[in-house]
Design a protein that fits this description.
Blueprint lengths: L12 H14 L5 E5 L4 H11 L5 E6 L2 H12 L3 E6 L8 H10 L5 E5 L1 E2 L4 E2 L2 H11 L2 E5 L11 H4 L3 E5 L11 E5 L1 H8 L12 H9 L12 H17 L1 H22 L4 E2 L12 E4 L6 H11 L5 E3 L8 E4 L8 H17 L6 H14 L2
Parallel strand pairs: 2-3, 2-4, 4-7, 7-8
Antiparallel strand pairs: 1-9, 5-6, 8-9, 10-11, 11-13, 12-13
Helix pairs in contact: 1-9, 4-5, 9-10, 10-12, 10-13, 11-12, 12-13
């Protein structure tokens, strides 16, 4: 008996290349796009290890946990790392980037996360990219969470290494990711004797064995189901229209933020300024005396499909994350999440107004603001 997931014809090099081209169009880039056969940590780490090493001076921007991870990788590569950390309830500014350059003119590499789903903030990459271009540094961007939820434009922003993943706003699988690579980045990798070679982490292997060969022979068997799922994600975004998909995510964020404020019970947005809040996820601060992880556990016990999570690590006690991305960028997901949070707060004797929260969410959803 044939099975639709198991008995598939091999994915041809031409089909693989066509999916890469569709991803490139989604990012509006003319750079080389390499689809990596693994979760986004694969190209995130691979790009750093390929482009950074002894002699690199990196400005590593920390607006959440992934920025901390990138700093660790950069140090492990032998780079000199200058961390620019800002409070997780805000975003970094281009002015702060320029100040770091002025203090350390030797900086030649900048690493940044676009949207930090874990902390609910998003950074103004267009303005930061302008500052990085003025410095002439190589610009590395994690756009895994943001792609599909807000514009990701590596060419316009001067991003040399831009990593995306399918598992968040694109609404796809976690097992496939992609990176766009500028000519400057390829040159930096080729000049780095420590860049991974003959390795699953190696971007240079893909360039030599795939791109430079005209994309005729794949270097290894592709993750076929994930590739087809990625193609389906892009098809769905193309069919709906990228602007429509991004507007849906932005509305979900605005509605969650407004609904949380209307709910009461001492709940408040974790990211102070609306302009700094990511469209992919909204983080909320619980009132004193409430443990966020316990509140989330209770909500999920009632409905395990809710897109809720507690903050990671030290944030588990104070932060709730509403992950309104992909198929959860809907009014129903927002309403259900806030209702479950409100019910948990009410059980602890806190005054909440579920109806006011519901009306607030609906109002934002209708008006889009």
């Amino acid at each position: 008996m044939t099975h639709p997931f198991l008995d598939l014809p091999p994915l041809s090099p031409a089909h693989f290349a066509a999916i890469e081209d569709r991803v490139a169009r989604l990012m509006d880039t003319r750079q080389d796009v390499v689809i990596m056969q693994g979760e986004a940590l694969l190209p995130l780490e691979g790009a750093i290890r390929a482009a950074a090493g002894p002699g690199t001076t990196a400005l590593n921007v920390i607006t959440g946990p992934y920025g901390q991870t990138f700093g660790n990788w950069l140090r492990d590569c032998g780079a000199t790392v200058i961390d620019l950390a800002v409070p997780f309830h805000t975003a970094v500014t281009a002015e702060e980037i320029r100040s770091a350059f002025a203090a350390h003119p030797e900086i030649d590499f900048v690493s940044l996360v676009h949207a930090e789903a874990a902390t609910g903030n998003t950074n103004p990459v267009a303005e930061i990219g302008e500052a990085v271009r003025e410095q002439g540094a190589l610009f590395y961007l994690d756009a895994v969470a943001s792609v599909g939820a807000e514009p990701v434009l590596p060419d316009s922003w001067g991003v040399d290494l831009c990593v995306i993943g399918a598992q968040k706003a694109m609404g796809g699988p976690a097992g496939v990711s992609a990176v766009s690579v500028s000519e400057r980045a390829w040159a930096r990798m080729a000049a780095n004797p420590r860049a991974p070679r003959r390795s699953y982490l190696s971007l240079l292997d893909w360039k030599e064995r795939w791109i430079d060969g005209g994309r005729r022979v794949l270097p290894h068997a592709p993750a076929q189901l994930e590739m087809l799922a990625l193609e389906a994600c892009v098809e769905r975004i193309e069919a709906d229209g990228p602007e429509t998909v991004m507007a849906r995510h932005r509305t979900a964020a605005l509605a969650t933020r407004a609904g949380a404020v209307a709910l009461g019970g001492g709940l408040e947005p974790y990211v102070y300024e609306e302009a700094d809040a990511a469209p992919v996820a909204t983080t909320l601060r619980v009132p004193p005396g409430v443990v966020a992880s316990d509140l989330v556990a209770g909500a999920l016990a009632g409905d395990g499909t809710l897109p809720l999570a507690a903050g990671g690590g030290a944030l588990a006690g104070e932060m709730i994350r509403v992950n309104h991305y992909g198929t959860d960028a809907t009014v129903g997901a927002v309403q259900s999440s806030l209702a479950a949070i409100g019910a948990g707060l009410a059980k602890q004797g806190l005054p909440v107004d579920l109806e006011r929260a519901r009306q607030s969410v609906e109002s934002v959803w209708v008006t889009g603001s």
